[in-house]
Each structure stands twice: as structure tokens, then as C-alpha cells.
Amino acid sequence: MQHSALTRGIIICHRCEKPASIKQDGQPCPRCGTHIHRRKRHSVAYTWALLLASMIMLIPANLLPIMTFKSLGKGDPATIMQGVLQLLEHDMLGIALVVLTASIIIPVMKVIGLIILLLTVQLGWTTNVRQKMLMYHFVEWIGRWSMLDIFVVAILAAIVQLGNLASVTGNTGATAFAAAVIFTMLAANCFDTRLIWDKHLEQLEVFP
Amino acid sequence: MTDRDLASTQPGKFWVCPECDLLMNRRAIPNRHEAHCPRCQSLIVSSKRHSIEWTLALALAGLILFFPANLFPILTLTTLGLSQSETIFMSVTALYDSHLFAVSALVLMSAIVVPLMKLLLMAYLSGCLLFHKPAPLLSWAMRSYQQLDSWGMLEIYMLGILVSIVKLVDVADVTPGIGLYSLAGLIIVTLLTSTQLDRHRFWRRIEQLERR
Questions:
Q1: A to B CB pairs, distance under 8 Å
Q2: ipTM score of the complex?
Q3: Residues of B in contact with A188 (CB under 8 A)
Q4: Cβ-contact A21, B8 below 8 angstroms
Q5: What residues does CATH 1.20.140 cover in chain A?
Q6: CA B100/CA A157 separation, integer angstroms
């Protein structure tokens, strides 16, 4: 069972999953019109590029304030971490954990996860291949949930508009944070898990 | 004829795991059964009963719920006689007023435009497939739906609402509006649509219709 469809001359459309002959590599899929490629093109390079972009954006995302909560004219812009600490001060441990997880822990774990997957392909770390597939599915699924903090800023900015009494405005950190989230989502999309299996099979041939 | 030639001349006889590229013999999957890849365990086929009927019904229900979810207030904040309501679109304009143009465009896309587009595409597609009507843009609609799928973020917006309620509870009275209940319904319907969608069946039907 250790083989791949590619070595038997079959490739599939990555959009509609229709199998095609290797001779159709680079041509449009007869069913859905997407161009068929044996593997996602430049997968490793694109994933690295988007991952680096998101790592860079995570720095201003965490250092710049994402929103300002003003009550009776008082209140300073707060970063993500300060927002979490404010929640802790008000004894809202549960919600502080949710925000901490979605805004800080998940983005960092996603970046680490994708780096491990990329190094798996490039350096041939093909032990525990199934665990790595699980890791990829987790990274792919969890990515969108980091948008939580952006939506919280959007909702609070819309609802807390009571003039001098209380008001919320968004700050530039939100743009950097949104960009970081989008870049990691795109990076996960660009990664082709089949490359891990290709490497795995290659190594099985060398060290059977 | 080598093994390789045999396979590549009849690619339709096989399944290929999109995650690990394992080649499998194609076989019929009975309704309400799933096929997983024996090597990497990822889901290959999930055959649903009445998949087309269900997705059409759910997409129409979603379209009906979309309007109250967007037009009626989701939350109302009251304190010292002042009150302020919020709809999804107002959270877009509030970000715009804070000069966060890119973020407001992102919220507009992920909380309003993409969910609406997904419902419209699915209603059109499953309607045409159900009545066997060869219509233009069928494969475009299915392709766009699959591409948009992970960019609709209503369930995350909902979690954002819950976090906001908790944050505001000390400051003022927060009351949920009709918009919030409609939004909850819309999220359930959207999630059910994606679980009832049997993409292999849809693509086969599209292929049959477009061949005529």
C-alpha cells in the first residue's frame, strides 16, 4: 500500500478532486476548469513567505494598542495583553482565558505548527506522519478563530457610543493583528500535505 | 502494458486521497456512510441522504434568516437613561470611523458579504441540480462556494458577541435583540448546510448537467 497516485500516473484536481492522467498536468480540469497540478505549486516557498509575513505582523499586533475604552473621559489605548489583564482584574478568569487563547496562544501555536510541517518536508523529519497530519488539520481549522479579538473590537466600537459617558474606538494594532491572522490562514491553505507523504515514501525506499 | 499505463488511461476508476495521494479503487458508498483514507485517515467521501434537497432547504432558510439577523439590533446597551443598539453593519461602520479601513472591509466581507454569497450560491446551485436544469455558471458556483467556505466567520462573530456581553456586564445593562436570535439560527443553518453538502455528488451532478 506504500505508493502514491502520482507514481502510477494519476493526479487530481485540487478543487473538485476529479482524477486525471499525468498527461493533463498544467491543463484545466475537464469538470471544473481549475488548472490541475501534480502538487500545489511552489507550496513550500509560498507557505514560508506568508508565514514570515504573519510572524512580522504579530510583533506590531502585540505591541500596538488595539482599542481604547474611554469612560467619563478617562482611559488609555490598550494592547491585547493589557485587555486580558484588565479582564483578570475584574475577576473574569474564564473570558480572559478565551481571549488569551484566541489572540495569543493560537497564533503562536499556528506559526510553530507550520514551521514544524515545513521543516518536515524540507529536512525529511518523517516520523509520526499521522500526528503531523492531525497537526495540520488542527492548524487549518483553528486559524479563523483568532479573528475573535477583531470582532470584539468591532462590536464594542459599535455599541459603546455613549458620548462622554463611555466610548470605544479601534486602534492600529487591530490592522496588524488582522493581517497576521489572514496571512497564517493563507499560509495553511498554501501548504500541500502530500509533500510530507512524498518525503516519507522517498525515505522508505532509501531505508526500507 | 505496465501498471502505470493501465492506471493513467482510466483515471475515473480510482479515488485519490487529496491529503496523502494514496491511490484507491473506486467503489460505491451507500447513503449515510463515510469513506476514510486507510493511510492518513482523512475523510474522502461522506455520502448523505437527500443531500441536494437538504442543502436547498437549508440555503433558503438561511436566506430568510439573513435579513432579520442583519436588520434588527443584536444587542442594546442601556445605562443612565442612554441607550445604543448594534447591528452587524454598524460594527463595520464603527471600525471605519476609527480609521481602520482594512479591518472594516475584512469584517464586512467575513460577517456579511461572504455568508450571503455562500447562501445565494448554494440556493442557486442546489435548485438547478434538484430540477435537473442545465444553467450557466454551475461549476463556477460550486468552485466559488468551496473557495469562500472558510472565509465566512459568523460563528466567530457570535463568540465575539458573547465576549462583549461579559465585558460590558459590569458597565451597563445589555439586552439581546431579535437580531441575535436570528443570527444564532443563521449560524446553525450555515453549519448544517456545510455538513449536509456531499461535494462528490454535487460535482458528479454538475458534470452530468454540463455534458448535455
A1: 213
A2: 0.90
A3: none
A4: yes
A5: 40-206
A6: 11
- Scanning every residue of chain A, which has its alpha carbon at the shortest distance from the alpha carbon of B103? A175
Give chain B as a 3 state SS string: CCHHHHHHHCHHHEEECCCCCCEEECCCCCCCCEEECCCCCCEEEECCCCHHHHHHHHHHHHHHHHHHHHHCCCEEEEECCEEEEECHHHHHHHHHHCCCHHHHHHHHHHHHHHHHHHHHHHHHHHHHHHCCCCCCCHHHHHHHHHHHHHHCCHHHHHHHHHHHHHHHCCCCEEEECHHHHHHHHHHHHHHHHHHHCCHHHHHHHHHHHHHC
Q: Is the Cβ–Cβ distance between B162 and A94 less than 8 Å?
A: no
- Closest by Cα among A30, A182, A186 to B139: A30
Per-residue pLDDT tens over the stretch A84-135: 998 888 888 888 998 899 889 999 999 999 999 999 999 888 788 888 999 9
Mind telling me how many Å the CA of B61 is from chain A's nearest CA? 25
Q: Report the residue of B4, B5, B21, B139 to disrupt the A interface, i.e. the one with the largest count of A CBs within 10 Å.
A: B21
Identify the architecture of domain A40-206 in CATH: Up-down Bundle (1.20)
| Interchain CB distance below 8 Å, B111 and A34 | no
The pTM is what? 0.91
